[in-house]
Design brief:
By secondary structure, the protein is mostly helical. The protein has 17 helices and no strands. Helix 2 crosses helix 13 and helix 6 runs parallel beside helix 10.
Length: 444
């Protein structure tokens, strides 16, 4: 016979019902889900340097350059930022009602199972579906750290988030400074060699170190062609060439960049959720201020970064210089996006579009993985990897958007969750939730 506490846990440790969902958050998640494909599609379809260096592949003139400029100005890092904020808000959504209704230790157990399974999904996404740029692994690990601070005040959460942004900026400034010094030493070593002089051991080290940075950010044609050949050479050939990059992203890159990047945004999202900002119920003036200040600062910073980068012919030195203000522009532009979406949720304009975006957001995990499956099919199985120009990729992006905006609401008329959301909940709670909606129930 089950104990009373076990009965309580069985009742409260269950997925959030449709009536308990917050529509503004679903809409915002839908926007982020669709928007992130604007950035990811480049890494999915073109060799590595194309993402940050359009001269490397995909084209850097005409419409190709216009697309690079627009995405860098408005979307670079911002959709990932919104996703991270919403995941942070998700820990409160996941726990608040359950704790109020009597959930105990099993609540922590459910949360940590949820994040562990997210790590597993991330590993499968990276190594089986061959997408090194995936984010689920990051969220699973960082998600383990935010559970204990779910009761911290909004002011402290936002304050610590800002502190992390300052730390990130300081690290980037220092890295940019070191890169600038290394470049100066490289130039000096080159002049010595031209004059027939002999380099010291330190000068040879600096020469090799700068050349290594250039090789990493601007790999030669031979390296790029090798990647393209492997990506078109069949599934196992593609896994072989991408697995080392996935390993780098989930180890070195994660511990140097990803952890604080994601944690800072998650804490910010938790704080904004506690203040009611993400509910879409604060005054329109606040959201208008977020738009004006967010875009005023963020887009201005992004504009100076992007134009200087283009004028410097996408040089490695310019890339490192832009890292000094990258998170400043990204953070403010992200807040501008949040303010704009919240303003839209407060109006009755384009209600059908908001309903479609909310459905996309409710199926975010399924739709996110679907992006990779579609890209892997087209660029891997059909061997289109490296063939398309940058601007052509957005024909596919808009087609995927259209499909998901149409199909997500249709799916949710018949099912409670997306298929991957359903599996994730099953693994989290240890019991299979109802999948199909009951057509006889007026509340479903």
């Amino acid at each position: 016979m089950q104990s009373k506490s076990q009965n309580i846990d069985d009742q409260v440790l269950a997925p959030v019902s449709e009536q308990q969902r917050i529509n503004s958050i679903d809409v915002l998640r839908g926007v982020a889900l669709l928007g992130i494909l604007l950035m990811n599609i480049v890494g999915m379809a073109l060799p590595d340097p194309a993402y940050w260096d359009p001269s490397g592949y995909g084209g850097d003139t005409g419409w190709n350059l216009r697309v690079f400029f627009t995405t860098s100005l408005l979307f670079e890092g911002t959709m990932r930022g919104i996703f991270s904020m919403l995941f942070g808000a998700g820990v409160i959504l996941f726990t608040a009602r359950k704790e109020a209704e009597g959930a105990g230790l099993e609540l922590a157990n459910a949360w940590y199972k949820r994040t562990i399974w997210l790590i597993v999904f991330g590993l499968l996404h990276a190594y089986i579906l061959i997408w090194p740029g995936e984010i689920l692994y990051f969220y699973g690990i960082v998600g383990m750290f935010i559970f204990p601070v779910r009761h911290v005040s909004a002011q402290k959460l936002i304050g610590f988030s800002i502190f992390l942004f300052v730390v990130i900026a300081a690290l980037n400034i220092n890295e940019s400074r070191k890169a600038g010094k290394l470049y100066e030493n490289w130039v000096a070593a080159g002049e010595i060699m031209e004059q027939g002089g002999t380099l010291t051991e330190d000068q040879r080290f600096d020469l090799e170190a700068w050349n290594k940075k250039v090789d990493e950010l601007k790999p030669g044609m031979e390296t790029r062609e090798r990647v393209i050949s492997n990506m078109r050479g069949g599934y196992f050939s593609a896994v072989k060439v991408m697995a080392p990059f996935s390993q780098f992203m989930q180890t070195t890159f994660f511990f140097r960049h990803g952890f604080m990047d994601v944690l800072s945004m998650m804490l910010l999202g938790m704080g904004l959720f506690k203040l009611g900002v993400l509910h879409g119920k604060r005054k329109a003036g606040l959201y208008g201020l977020m738009v004006l200040v967010g875009y005023g600062v963020g887009i201005t910073v992004n504009w100076f970064e992007t134009t200087s980068y283009i004028h410097d012919n996408f040089s490695v030195l310019s890339y490192y210089r832009n890292q000094r203000t990258y998170d400043l522009g990204r953070l403010f532009t992200t807040m501008g996006h949040v303010g704009l979406v919240m303003l839209c949720t407060k109006t009755s304009f384009l209600g059908f579009m908001k309903r479609a975006l909310a459905a996309v957001g409710r199926m975010a995990l399924t739709n996110y993985i679907m992006h990779t499956v579609i890209a892997t099919t087209i660029f891997g199985i059909f061997k289109q990897y490296g063939h398309w120009q940058r601007y052509q990729l957005y024909y596919l992006v808009f087609s995927v958007w259209t499909f998901q905006l149409i199909m997500s609401p249709i799916w949710l008329r018949h099912f409670r969750f997306g298929p991957l959301e359903w599996i994730w909940r099953w693994l989290t709670y240890g019991k299979r939730p109802a999948f199909r909606k009951n057509p006889l129930s007026p509340h479903q």
